[in-house]
Design goal:
It comes from Nocardioides jishulii. This protein has helices spanning about 25-40, 60-70, 85-100, 135-150, 190-200, 215-235, 255-260, 290-295, 300-305, 320-335; strands at about 5-10, 45, 75-80, 105-110, 185, 200-205, 210, 245, 250, 270-275, 280, 285-290, 310. By secondary structure, the protein is of the alpha/beta class. The chain is globular, with a radius of gyration of 20 Å.
């Protein structure tokens, strides 16, 4: 059994071929797709965060709205760029969204990826401290965020407050118990997955990883998952972590599916340089009839180890079409793999 959900980047475009023409469209359709996913028996609605782009950016209003309109599915991010975040304010937003959803928030965070503007986090008021680079700044923000989520008091109360205070030091409110164990880190290298485990975060692995061995994408990703679990055991945490992987999986069950994705049937891994010091391998897309997909996905070594699979959706094709893709995956592919 695996949890199956979608990952939505939330692109919008005024192209005549797009059903998502504006920010309002992508936000409202994201809510509708989450509701449809719950009705179809899916398990999660996750959203990517990119700043200065015609994509989803501010996740917490969206997550809170979905939490209020659904009852069962997990809601989350994949991932929030911690270079841009005030960890105190983020803890308040995350606590509120988690309480609204009844404890269903699964928050994916990371040090971020190349963005639309140069050093965009500087426009948000953040800069690395002396001796830091931008990645170290993201990890510093993360360490503060994780500490605050524990719910322990740290702020000295005003002796003459406007409202009565509880005894002792004060904490950020609202606090949502249990949220600290539902934080995920988006990692791409073995060193980072090991750091993730030591920090006590769940592992979120996407459709690219650092090309560290030259092996196929799914093999390198599988090695990273194994390294994460090895490091987790050595760290001695007292709870079981989770691991998610993202995939582009397009079941072809109609002529329209074939028109959109038939050309992806022979997709292969690709290698690229996404940052000066990061050579990455990008995982292939899967597009085929359900019985062929079952055979192909059974050979994906990383998929076998993950407990959560996130389907990257072509959101500009609209809610109805993406709900159709999810239904095909849930009803015609997942049973053949033992995921349902």
């Amino acid at each position: 059994m695996k949890k199956l959900g979608f990952l939505n980047f939330g692109h919008w475009s005024d192209s005549p071929h797009s059903q998502v023409r504006s920010a309002a469209d992508t936000l409202l359709q994201s809510i509708d797709l989450a509701v449809a996913t719950e009705e179809l028996g899916g398990d999660g609605a996750y959203f990517r965060v990119h700043h200065f782009a015609r994509q989803l950016a501010s996740p917490f209003p969206l997550l809170a709205a979905i939490g209020a309109k659904t009852e069962r599915i997990e809601i989350g991010t994949g991932v929030i760029d911690m270079r841009y975040e005030n960890p105190m304010y983020m803890a308040e937003d995350a606590g509120a969204a988690d309480l609204i959803s009844g404890g269903r928030l699964q928050l994916g965070i990371s040090r971020g990826s190349p963005e639309q503007v140069v050093d965009g986090w500087r426009y948000f008021g953040y800069a690395p401290a002396e001796g830091e680079d931008h990645a170290a700044m993201a990890r510093r923000h993360t360490e503060v965020f994780l500490e605050v989520l524990k719910g322990e008091g740290f702020a000295q109360p005003n002796p003459r407050p406007m409202f009565p205070n509880p005894p002792g030091l004060l904490r950020v409110e609202p606090h949502s118990p249990g949220l600290r164990e539902r934080i995920w880190w988006g990692a791409a290298s073995e060193a980072t997955v090991r750091w993730t485990a030591r920090m006590g975060m769940n592992l979120m692995s996407s459709t690219l990883v650092a090309d560290e061995t030259g092996e196929p994408f799914h093999v390198q990703q599988r090695r990273q998952i194994e390294a994460f679990r090895e490091e987790w055991a050595a760290a001695g945490h007292d709870w079981e972590p989770r691991v998610s992987v993202s995939r582009s999986i397009m079941p072809i069950t109609t002529d329209l599916d074939r028109a959109y994705f038939g050309g992806d049937a022979n997709s292969r891994d690709q290698v690229g340089q996404i940052e000066p010091q990061l050579r990455a391998v990008f995982g292939r897309s899967y597009a085929a009839e359900p019985d062929v997909l079952v055979e192909q996905l059974a050979q994906d070594e990383a998929l076998q180890l993950a407990d959560t699979v996130l389907l990257t959706v072509p959101n500009q094709l609209g809610v109805d079409y993406n709900a159709h893709l999810l239904e095909s995956l849930i009803t015609q592919v997942a049973p053949g793999l033992g995921w349902r």
